[in-house]
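Please check this today:
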Amino acid sequence: MPRKIVVTGGNGQLGKTLSALCEAGAKPAVLDVAVLDRQQLDITDSIAIASVLGSLKPECIINAVAYTQVDKAESDSERAFAINETGVANLASWVAANGGTLLHVSTDFVFDGKATRPYTADAAAMPMGIYGRSKLAGEQQLRRLLPINSAIVRTSWLYSEYGNNFVKTMLRLMSERDEIGVVNDQVGSPTSTHSLAALLLTMAHRQFQSGIFHWTDGGAVSWYEFALQIQREGLQQGLLTRKIPVRPLTTAEYPTPARRPAYSVMDRRRTLSRFSCPRTSWEQELARVITGLKQQN
C-alpha cells in the first residue's frame, strides 16, 4: 500500500515545489502525496483539520504553511501567531489523537544572530522579532503536544522559481535598474526549495526521526555576495542581458521594521549524518533555479 502523505501550504513556494516534484514523478513510488492549499485546508481552523485529515487519513503530514512576511509581522502579530503557533498546535493535536508523524518547517530567525560559528540544532533559540518569536512558539507547541512523532526542520534564505523571494527580486531589479545596493553585513546560507523538498520526502518515506534538524545548501555568504552570484548566473544563462553595479550596504543604511540576525548560518551536520541528503552546493542549486526561471520565461 502507498504511504499517504499530506502537504499543507500548497500555495507557497515549498508547497509548489513539492507539488511539481510529485507531478514530475520525482518522488518515491511508494508515496501517495496530496498537496493542499489554504482553500483546501486552513490549519488555523481545527474543525477543518478534523474533517479534511479525517477523510484523507495521512500517515505523515509535511507542514509547509508559514506566515513569512517578516516586516509585516511586526504590526500583524495576531495573524503571525495564529498561523505559526496555533496552526502548528492544531496539526500536532490531530496527529497526537489519530496517529502518524508530523514534519514541520521552521526558520533561522529563531536565533538572535550573535553567534560567530554555525548554530547547532541544540543552540539556544532567542528570536529578535515577531516572525521569529511566532515560529519558535510553533516549535514549542509541537514539541509539547507531539514530542515523539514529530520533527522540526529549520531552513534559511529559501528561494525557488515560485512566489516572491530574494532571487527573483534581484533578477527583476537587475533588469530594471542601472545600479542596486544590497546588505553586506548579514550572513547566512541560501537554500533552494528543491533540496529542502527532497530531504522532506526522504524523511517522510522511510527515514523519519524525531528531533530538530537544520537544512541549508551550505556556505556562508552575505546578501550582497548572494546577489553577485545571482547576477553572474543570470548573465551566464541569458536571463540578464547586462551587468550593473551592485553596491554593498550596511544594515544601518537599509533600515527595516524588523531586525534581522547578523549571522544565521546553521550547522547541518546532524542532518547530513542521519538522512540521505542532497549533496549539491548552494551555487549549483542557484543555477538549477535560474534554469527553471529561464524555462518559465
